[in-house]
Amino acid sequence: MKIRVLSITAQAGAEAVQELRSASFVAVHGTCSLDPHVLGLVELQGQVHGATSCLGAMSHAGVTDGVAVFAIDDPDGAYGTAMLPFDPDSYSAARAATMQALAAADRLGEKPELVWVSSTPGTEEAILAGIESVIGTDVPIIGGSAADNDVSGQWFVFDKSRREAAGVVVTVMFPSRPVSFAYHNGYSPTEKSGTVTRIEGRRVIEIDHRPAFEVYRAWCEGAVSLDPGDPGMQSILSDSTLAPLGRRVAELDGLPSYLLAHPAAANTAGALELFATVEEGEVLTCMTGTQAGLIDRAGRVAALARAAGGMETSPIAGALMVYCGGCMLSVRDRLEEVVAGVAGSLGPAPFLGTFTFGEQGQIIGAGNRHGNLMISCIVFG
Predict the structure, then answer these.
(1) Helix, strand, coil shares, percent, the chain, to 5
(2) Potential cystine with 272: which of 185, 212, 247, 358 (Cβ 3.0-4.6 Å)?
(3) How many CB atoms lie within 10 A of CB 252?
């Protein structure tokens, strides 16, 4: 197995991508302002999996405001990719895309080592369920939701020849070398928590039978506020980045594992809109984080991914990383430190990091889950 990662711009894109013409699998992640099809992806021989990333991407070479390309040359492995629009719905699309991806890999009826998934935001829980309906619940599903530069909905997923503004792209992987992964957050729980008592979709209406935003604002000690003269939904995405909501989903060696939900918007009536789905009866805990913690966490997650596969000291071929776009925006002026931390954990191996608006991964004891403000890393041996 050989892995190559390129950071490219529109001017040098098509020529650079042609270096990867014979790769078994190519993942392409980058800004939504660059049309991926000017890169000549249709000429690649292998499977192509693409999704937009907030303001660019990162790699071992640094941060790019263009596109980063991750390519696996693995003639002894098998890879299959399929993309479908949400028709008739996201669950059905994910289920059908998974079956098509298995067919593309010539592995129908088999369980892949792992699944790499990208989708447009909004129904990630249904997408995970659709994939699991084909491969079961024990196969790790790792990935992230497509992102744009300003949460205006310009995100999309794509393959060799087309793009979808509302769709999912699924890659099944049967690599010839071992893989391992880690999926974590960089936040700590506070003592402030409450029970969801009313929801409407991804909008939390009440916590402990009180207006949800009123409760959340008190937990944040007023750090997140609204314009009292605007009755509509107002973005609180930036202000809430260091104070997300956590759900305790598992416990490992006596330590709780929290899955995060990022408060995206709120209104003066008290509704609180999230980038993840929660259920009535769930307990939400106010979490706390720092810029320093978010910077350090990426390298730590990369190290944990190596450790999970017993690869702490053995050479690795490369890595794929998902780093939440909200976290990225919070530490944007220090992203080179994030890159340095990841490179310090991975050594000389190349890596690609995409900045997403939702993260999917497997939590020990809780299965495959969708969360926000999370970081994941897949390491290829």
Answers:
(1) 25, 40, 35
(2) 212
(3) 11
